[in-house]
Amino acid sequence: MLHTPPFPAGHDAQIRAVQIRASGWGWRHAGRHNQAVSGLDLQIEPGERVLLLGASGAGKSTLVHALAGVLGDAEDGDETGSLLIDGRRAAEARGRVGLVLQDPDSQVVLARVGDDVAFGCENLAVPRAEIWPRVRQALTEVGLNLPLDHPTSSLSGGQKQRLALAGVLAMRPGLLLLDEPTANLDPDGVIEVRDAVVRSLDRSGATFVVIEHRVEVWQDVVDRVIVLDPAGGVLADGPTREILSRQGERLATAGVWVPALPPRFPTRSPIAPAETLLRAEGLAVGRVPFGRRAASVVAAGITLNLRAGTATVVTGPNGAGKSTLALTLAGLLKPAGGTLQASDKFAAGIASEPHRWRSQQLLTRIGTVFQDPEHQFLAATVRADLLIGPHALGLSAAEQTSRVDELMHRLRLDHLADANPFTLSGGEKRRMSVATVLATRPRLLVLDEPTFGQDSRTWQELVTLLAELLDEGTALVAVTHDAQFVSALADEEYRLGTPDPIRLGAGAL
Amino acid sequence: MSLLTPTIRPSVVARLNPVAKLAVALIVSCALLLSIDWVSAGVALLLEAGLLLWCGLSARQFLLRTAPVWIAAPMAAVTTVLYGEDSGALLWQFGFISVTEGSTQLGLAIGLRVLAIGLPGIVLLATTDPTDLADGLAQVLRLPARFVLGGLAGLRLVGMFIEDWHSLTLARRARGVGDGGGPRGAARRFFGPAFSLLVISVRRGSKLATAMEARGFGSDEPRTWARPSRVRAADAVLVGIGFAIAGIAIGVAVWAETWSFILA
């Protein structure tokens, strides 16, 4: 007997797009005083593609986690109202919803590509004979043309996100949820993931909800924008173009990257003459692998001049050794070859090779902002953590307090003085990690991907602050993928993998 | 190559079901733990050597992986010879240290035992893919999937611990607390990052758990297995060989009248 599938031509007949309906829905995480989401009323029709926006703390992630059924039960929080997927509670819609999260590293479950994609199917008890065709199809859809036994540990960030997407697609969900899927990726990775999502949606016709503060990436993919209100409910809801023009201002203030309203670039007043602090000649960088004695070189033949009041950016593809170079310039790794020498004035009476400096001698000379802020947190409260550097310098108690108070004020951390650094939001952690470094007033700042995953507000504050430091004579070297950061600050660009540094802007002489 | 995807050369041993290999290692170990005498351990070691030739490891790999056992065995032997319970003729004495016929035999028995139990254990690990072992534990031994797969997924985080530890120690140096302070400073430099690592790992673990849950893991519904773990005739033969090694080792020791049952 023939029957007509209720789907438009070209869509996968096995996938039925999901309808979402929230009525007066709210959630309060256990142990928290404030509602994460409250009074939410909305309806999303099958096959709709929605971009979910809102200020930090508006409850976007909570909503998406609830739709995916991973928010937990009454023990994990209090639910009010109802949130239904095809008329059933979200927690009961197992297998109908697929979720891809932000961090590429914490979503890989198994060691081999094929096994990882098969994992979701196994959990849904898909028969073995059907699993492997699904796995191959999902991998083709996301454009990962790798052998099934390829190790997942050797994938790049963008590949890992596409792997996570493939794992979800193989489950054939009627609703695809993405929670900032590209925030931790370089520009190529962002495009890879976006295109893979579009390809799969065109084929499956599934309902789609994405959270992402970089609007530019998704604005041409989605047909509806919903803005959540931190005070509860929905702030704005409608066609993409309309909402972005009507709410653009407000969204930009809340940290959303609205393409029509890019952040302002700071005006610089370069100092002259720019004295050289650190000079690398024929520098080779590498790390000593675990359990080995000799470093394995990742980049070599690097010649660089880091000068006071000058911003140097290091760019280049993933795996080119940018972070290793940053750590070497920062005096944290020993050069694997060539020379790295501080000027006499910069060294100020100690050895000229930064890796031979004592930890405390680094403090006033080179400050390093790590890619993951959590790696540099040492104390249980923001204030105590900021005091560590000034204390190690042996400053007077009064001087320590005044420096830290001033920094907390400048970086809007006052209200968090007694909070544990690990509990801060992404933007707060970044500001905090910069503050810890500035507390000892180093003459050279080394930053590894300082703007990764930051909202436009934190980005603006960070760039403005760095411009001020440059004007005061601090030398700056930053590893970055962020083209806007390069345009806003860079005097010199060193592209790893190319022979000569590219000189830009007023600092180029 | 990494912890979870070891380079395993195709070999007879590598193709066997991990559960069968685990069974052999357990059978031989249990048999050898029943007595402390040099004959049973020596015979078992000799018979195992025949099996280990088939394990598919190159001589270099074999020596590198088993190095801890080669170091531990003579050390255990020498310690026992020097300080072990004395019996029989006195061979050599220096102060408290006395070497007797009895302690020499005991030392030899202990040294051989460490080798005979340690070598197959390590070779088993070196020729087994953790994913295959998990499949075997869950499908052949019917251990709960939640437990087995949770452990397997957690194992993947170990590689990240090493990366995190490296970054944490560099960050300490960058923040001015990377050296100095004498032994107290050194202790702080170990426990400080250890605590941060714990926090970071717990977080990573909970994110991984959410990702796994989002893919339908952890419910009480039955699940299927994409990779079948089957027990074949060759696996039965291997377990048979395990019993044979244990049996022959005990038999020869009893015949040579060196068998001394520890519970007797």
From TrEMBL, chain A:
It comes from the Bacteria. GO terms for molecular function: ATP binding; ATP hydrolysis activity; ATPase-coupled transmembrane transporter activity. Keywords: ATP-binding, Nucleotide-binding, Transport. One of its GO terms (cellular component) is ATP-binding cassette (ABC) transporter complex. InterPro entries: AAA+_ATPase (IPR003593), ABC_transporter-like_ATP-bd (IPR003439), ABC_transporter-like_CS (IPR017871), ABC_transpr_CbiO/EcfA_su (IPR015856), ECF_ABC_transporter_ATP-bd (IPR050095), P-loop_NTPase (IPR027417). PROSITE patterns: ABC_TRANSPORTER_1, ABC_TRANSPORTER_2. This is Energy-coupling factor ABC transporter ATP-binding protein. It comes from Cryobacterium suzukii.
TrEMBL record, chain B:
Pfam families: CbiQ. One of its GO terms (cellular component) is plasma membrane. It comes from the Bacteria. The keyword Membrane applies. The chain crosses the membrane at residues 21-47, 67-85, 106-127, 236-256. It is a multi-pass membrane protein. It is found in: Membrane. The keyword RNA-binding does not apply. Signal peptide: none annotated. Keywords: Cell membrane, Membrane, Transmembrane, Transmembrane helix. PANTHER family: SLL0384 PROTEIN (PTHR34857). This is Energy-coupling factor transporter transmembrane protein EcfT.
